[in-house]
Amino acid sequence: MTENENVEVKNNTSANLWTAIVLGVIALIVGIMPFFYLKDMVAP
Amino acid sequence: MSAVIHEDHHHDGPPAGFKRWLYSTNHKDIGTMYLIFALVMLFIGGGMAMIIRAELFMPGIQIVNPDLYNNLLTDHALIMIFGMVMPAAAGMANWMIPMMIGAPDMALPRMNNMSFWLLPAAAILLLSSLLVQFIPGTGVPINTGWTLYPPLSVQTGMGMDLLIFSVHLLGISSIMASINIVTTILNMRAPGMPFMKMPLFVWAWLFTGLLLIIVMPVLAGGVTMLLFDRHFGTSFFDAAGGGDPVLFQHLFWFFGHPEVYVLLLPSIGVLGLVIPTFSRKPLFGYKPLVFFMGFLFALGLVVWAHHQYTIGMSLGATTYFMIGTILISIPIGLMLFNFIFTMWRGSLTFETPMLFGIAIILMFAFAGVTGVMLAVVPADLQYHDSYFVVAHFHYALIPGAVFGLYAGVFYWLPKWTGHMYNEKQGKIFFWWTTLSFNLTFFPQHFSGLAGMPRRIVDYNIQYIEFNQISSIGGFLFGLSHLLFLYIIIKTVKGGEKAADKPWEGAQIGTPGLEWTLPSPPPFHSFTTPPQIK
Ligand code: HEM
Ligand SMILES: [Cu+2]
C-alpha cells in the first residue's frame, strides 16, 4: 500500500447505515399510511 | 485504515462453485445474476405474450379459456415489469454505478445479496399463482389484469393470495435494492466526483431509487389491505362494509404512475451515455436534463388519477389531473430534444446501441403523442380500456424501457465480457425487433379507436385484420429474441477481444470511470478511491 499512502481512504460504514435507516423509515411510513383508512372501515 | 486495506488482499478472487453466487456480495456478480434472471423472465413473459397473440389471431375462443387468458395477461404484465425491466435495470445499476463513480462496491453488499435472492422466490410464487388453478377447489384464476382491482380481486381464488405474497417479496426486494443504490450514490462517490459531474445514468437511477422508495410501500400496503379484505373480515374496499373500491384504484395508481417512470428513467440514463458516445459530442444540456428528470420525479408523483378518469371524480379533481398530466409531456419532449441536439452536427456512427438510441427517440415520441391524447378527459372517456391504451403503453414501454435496456446491453457487453459482439448480428437484431415491434403494435391504435376493448379473450370479426397483423408481428418480435440470446451467449463465450474503452467516443463529456478499468474489469475494482482530475 506504500504507493497509496497519501490517499485518504474514507470509511463510509456508519454513514451508509444511517442513510439506509433513514430511507427505510421513509418507506415504512409511506407503507403504513394506507392503513389509516382502517378507522371506520372494519365491517360491523 | 491500512489494516482494512490489507485485509482486502487475502481474497481478491471469486470463491469457487455455487458459493460464489449464493453468498455473493460482489456488485458485478450480483449484477450478472440480475441480468440473467431478467433474461429468463423475458422468455417466460414473452412466451405468455405468444399464447395471447395466438389466441387473438382469430375471433372466438381457440386455445385458452377466458379465465386462463386473463390470468396469462395479468402475469405477462407483472413478469415483464417486475421480473424483466426492473431487474435488468437493477443489474445494470449494480454493474455500472460503482464503477462509474469510483466506488469499491455497493454501499450495503449483504443487503444487495438479499435483494437479489428474494427475486427467484417471488418468481416461484408468481408462477405457482398461475398454476394453482389446475388444482381443483382453488377457486377462480386471477382474472383481474395487473391492476388487481377489487371487488374482482377479492372474489378470485387462492392464486390471488400467492400473487399478493409474490408482490410483497418483489416490493421488499426492489425497496432494498433502491435503498442500496441511493445510499451508494449519496455516500460512495470518489473524490472529485460531485453530483453535477455524475454520468446521466447515475442521476437517472438516483431518481428511480427515490421514486421506488416512496411508491413501492404503497402498493405493498394496498395489496395487504386486499389480503385483509379477503380473509380477515375488513372492508377497506367493500362498500357494503363502509369501504370504497375506488380507494384501491388510488393506492394502486399512486404506485402505478410513478412506476412507469421507474421503468423509463434508467433507459433515459443509458441514452444519455449512448447518444454522446456515438455522436462524439458531449451531451447537449446536461444540467437541464438532470432538472427535467427531477421535474418528472416530482410531477410524476401527483398525476396518478389520469388512469381513473371514468370513476366519476369531481370536476376540480379531473381538471387538475388533466393539466398535471399534460404538463408532464413538456419535460419528456425537452429531453428528447436534448438528445437530438446532441446528435446535431456530431460525427455520427451507427453501431447497434446508437441505432436503438435513435429508434427510441422516434418511437417514444409517438407514445408521448398518444399519451397527451389520453390525458384529455373527454377523449379518454372514449379511449379508456380500449386497445388504444394498449398501443400507447407498449410504444412507451418497449422503446422507452426495453430498447433502452437493449442499447445498454450492446453498449456494455464488451465491458462486461471482454469480448466484442458481432456488429452485423446486432444490426440484424435491431432491424428485426424494430420492424416487428411496429408491425405488432401500430395496428392496435386503429382497432382501439374502432372500439376494441382490452383484456377480453374474444373480439368482433370487424377487428380481424388488425389482430392478424398484430399476431404475425408479435410472433416475429418474439422470434427475434432467439437471435438476442444467441448473440449474448456467443459474446460471453468468446469473440474479438474488447479494448478497455471499446467505443471511440465513450467518456466524452462525462468523467465516468468505468472505461478506465480493463474489459472485463477485475473482481474487485477501486479498492482505494481513484483521484479524478
Ligand atoms: C407524454 C407523457 C405521457 C402521458 C401524457 C401519458 C398519459 C397516459 C394516460 C392518460 C393513460 C391512461 C389511459 C387510460 O387508461 O384510459 C396512460 C396509460 C399508460 N401509460 Fe402513459 N402517458 C405518458 C407517458 C408514458 C410513459 C413514459 C410510460 C412508460 C414508460 C407510460 C406508460 C403507460 C402505461 C403502462 C399505461 C397503462 C396502464 C394500464 O392501464 O394498465 N406512459 N398514459
Ligand atoms: Cu400514468
SSE topology sketch:
The complex is a heterodimer of chains A (44) and B (533).
Chain A: H1 13-32
Chain B: H1 2-8, H2 19-22, H3 27-55, H4 66-101, H5 109-131, H6 152-155, H7 159-187, H8 200-231, H9 245-279, H10 286-300, H11 315-343, H12 352-375, H13 377-383, H14 387-417, H15 423-449, H16 464-493
Helix pairs in contact in B: 3-4, 3-5, 3-16, 4-5, 4-7, 4-9, 4-14, 5-7, 7-8, 8-9, 8-10, 9-10, 9-12, 9-14, 10-11, 11-12, 12-14, 12-15, 14-15, 15-16
Copper (II) ion is lined by residues 257, 260, 306-307 of chain B.
Structure description:
With 44 residues, chain A is mostly helical. Chain A is built from 1 helix and no strands. Chain A has one domain. Chain A is rod-shaped. The N terminus and C terminus of chain A are likely disordered. Chain B is mainly α and 533 residues long. The N terminus of chain B is likely disordered. Chains A and B meet through helix 1 of A and helix 1, helix 7 and helix 8 of B. Bound molecules: protoporphyrin IX containing FE and copper (II) ion. The site of protoporphyrin IX containing FE (HEM) has 26 residues of chain B, from helix 9, helix 11, helix 12, helix 13 and helix 14.
Name some characteristics of this structure.
heterodimer, A: 44 residues, mainly alpha, 45% helix, rod-shaped, disordered C terminus, B: 533 residues, Cytochrome C Oxidase, Chain A, 16 helices, binds protoporphyrin IX containing FE, binds copper (II) ion
Q: TL;DR of this structure?
A:
The complex is a heterodimer of chains A (44) and B (533). Chain A is mainly α and 44 residues long. Chain A has one helix at residues 13-32.
What proportion of the residues of chain B is helical, as a percent range?
55-70%
Rg over C-alpha atoms of chain B, rounded to the nearest angstrom: 23 Å
Compounds present? protoporphyrin IX containing FE, copper (II) ion
Main beta sheet strand tally, sense and closure of chain A: none
Name the structural class of chain A. Answer: mainly alpha
Largest interface: A-B, 32 and 43 residues
Based on secondary structure, the structural category of chain B is: mainly alpha
- In CATH, the homologous superfamily of chain B goes by the name Cytochrome c oxidase-like, subunit I domain
Question: What is the mean predicted local confidence, pLDDT of chain A?
Answer: 72
Beta percentage of chain A is under 5%
Overall radius of gyration of chain A: 22 Å
Total number of strands of chain B: 0
